[in-house]
Amino acid sequence: xxxxxxxxxxxxxxxxxxxxxxxxxxxxxxxxxxxxxxxxxxxxxxxxxxxxxxxxxxxxxxxxxxxxxxxxxxxxxxxxxxxxxxxxxxxxxxxxxxx
Length: 99
Known about the structure:
This protein is α/β, with parallel strands linked by helices and 99 residues long. The protein has helices at 28-37, 53-68, 80-88; strands at residues 8-13, 16-23, 42-51, 74-76, 95-96. Helix 1 runs parallel beside helix 2.
């Protein structure tokens, strides 16, 4: 168990949401709302230091929702922690560029 409180911040740069910090249960809903409320085509994750299954679900849900409406949501510049999670669940093909 981690002692410090989880933290994640996001900023919107044009059509990209940039996330930094820990993407987990504490912030996943806020991230999901940001992705749903904006015309976003990419999520940049180079600053994400930790992501749990709830954070992964928020990203995947936003991506699949976008695809159902004919759009795209690219997952770009994934940090080592994010890449490792995607490897563990067998979803590296969703990363841009894929591994």
